[in-house]
Amino acid sequence: MARLEPHLPKPHGKPRVDDRRVLSGIIFIIRNGLRRCDAPETYGPHKTLYNRWKRWRDKGVFAQIMAGLAAAHGEEKTVLIDISR
Predict the structure, then answer these.
(1) 27 contacts 83 by C-beta, under 8 angstroms
(2) Cα–Cα distance measured from residue 52 to residue 26, given in angstroms and rounded to the nearest whole number
(3) pLDDT of residue 83
(4) DSSP letters along the chain, please?
(5) For helices 46-59 and 19-32, what crossing angle results, to 10°?
(6) Residue pLDDT tens, the chain, 85 long
(7) How is residue 37 annotated by DSSP?
(8) Using an 8 Å Cβ cutoff, are 21 and 39 in contact?
(9) What CA dihedral angle connects 58, 64, 65 and 69, to 10 degrees?
(10) What whole-number distance in Å separates Cα of residue 43 and Cα of residue 33?
């Protein structure tokens, strides 16, 4: 998470739900092919998961995360996250 935090938007205004928990929820939903309303409550409200995913997608946060992870390992353009178990 320490490598991801520099790429996450800074909070402003009222405190928000923990980024780590929400990001884990977003990954859980995508990995398992779920609807956001089917995510376990441990990841927070499903509306929060959707809103954060949409806002971060529109701002290019996920692309920044991938580019940052690739650059940290000497790659220029490609990163593959293996979510298989």
Answers:
(1) yes
(2) 9
(3) 64
(4) -TTTGGGSPPP-SS--S-HHHHHHHHHHHHHHT--GGGS-GGG--HHHHHHHHHHHHHHTHHHHHHHHHHHHTT-SS--------
(5) 90
(6) 888 888 888 888 888 888 899 999 999 999 999 999 999 999 989 999 999 999 999 999 998 888 888 787 766 666 666 666 6
(7) G
(8) no
(9) 160
(10) 16
DSSP letters along 5-20, please? Answer: GGGSPPP-SS--S-HH
By CB neighbour count within 10 A (0-12 exposed, 13-18 middle, 19+ buried), where does 36 fall? Answer: middle
Which amino acid would we find at residue 31?
A: R
Residue corresponding to tokens 């509306």: 47
